[in-house]
Write a structure and sequence with these properties.
By secondary structure, this protein is α/β, with parallel strands linked by helices. It has helices at residues 13-24, 38-48, 64-72, 94-99, 112-147, 198-204, 249-265, and strands at residues 4-9, 29-35, 52-55, 83-88, 104-107, 156-161, 164-169, 175-179, 182-187, 190-195, 210-214, 217-220, 224-229, 235-239, 244-247.
């Protein structure tokens, strides 16, 4: 089994030594770096590219949440962002910790069996990432094969607007919303009302670039910035322009798989 590569960050040296000693008792674990300096943690992540980051939350100068935010930006450079698990004495931070996307929250003092459970969860998540990445690569190969045998896609509609008829290239739309017998096509800052059912428009879209996330909503995959839950427990997507789109229960599993696969392939 490939060793799981960990980076530890806690401002208490004793906590780092204790956690390191516990990890040494678990097979196939490699601590690639550790630090008591929260500001150094991001540089160490960049230099070592660990699979998992174990973070304290309450530290001087900057806290664990600041580190997670900084590390997340590495994804924009094409780097694979490590998974995060928080290790802290402050249980009150648990809800906020999970909102950041952390895979686990370990209260101090950490018990060995609890640590092993978290590591197993991390392995499972990494395997899921790898499988999703392979799926994206396979889909890309299939798309390339199809492209060699099919004519180029030229999906567009003509929409009346202010006394003229405007050509809308569907591949340029950010999102599409059903409005009764019509659909509203959102293209950057503009929107256009077109008479057609959303299913008809969906059939004209490139399935590798667009995703049905609700019976009334289609989004362009690269326009999605985040997946989250509302205070009422429903799923929703946050787009890059800050707009929010409901995530229907029927579409949730496929949408999450596709969006995570897209993020992992970038």
């Amino acid at each position: 089994m490939t060793a799981l590569r960990l980076l530890l960050c806690d401002d208490e040296p004793l906590a780092v030594r204790r956690l390191t000693a516990m990890l040494e008792e678990i097979p196939d674990i490699a601590v690639v770096a550790s630090t008591t300096d929260a500001r150094e943690a991001v540089d160490l992540v960049r230099g070592t590219m660990p699979d998992l980051l174990l973070l304290d939350i309450k530290m001087p100068d900057i806290d664990g949440f600041d580190i997670v935010e900084a590390v997340a930006k590495l994804g924009g450079t094409g780097a694979t962002v490590p998974l995060v698990a928080f290790v802290t004495a402050y249980r009150k931070f648990a809800p906020q910790a999970f909102e950041t996307g952390a895979i686990d929250f370990l209260p101090k003092p950490v018990r060995l069996n609890r640590l092993e459970t978290m590591l197993a969860r991390a392995r499972h998540a990494i395997e899921g990432r790898q499988a999703a990445r392979r799926l994206v690569e396979l889909e890309a190969m299939l798309d390339a094969l199809r492209a060699n045998h099919l004519p180029a896609r030229d999906a567009h509609v003509w929409v009346p607007r202010r006394g003229e008829v405007v050509r809308i290239d569907l591949d340029r739309t950010d999102r599409i919303v059903a409005e009764g017998a019509y659909v509203r096509l959102h293209v950057e800052e503009n929107s256009y009302l077109h008479r057609a059912p959303i299913g008809e428009i969906e059939s004209q879209l490139d399935p590798s670039r667009f995703l049905r996330v609700h019976r009334s909503h289609i989004v362009r995959v690269d326009h999605v910035a985040a997946i989250r839950r509302t205070i009422h427990g429903a799923g929703e997507l946050v787009l890059r322009n800050g707009q929010r789109v409901p995530l229907g229960r029927k579409y949730s599993r496929d949408a999450r798989r596709r969006l995570m696969a897209f993020a992992g392939a970038r």
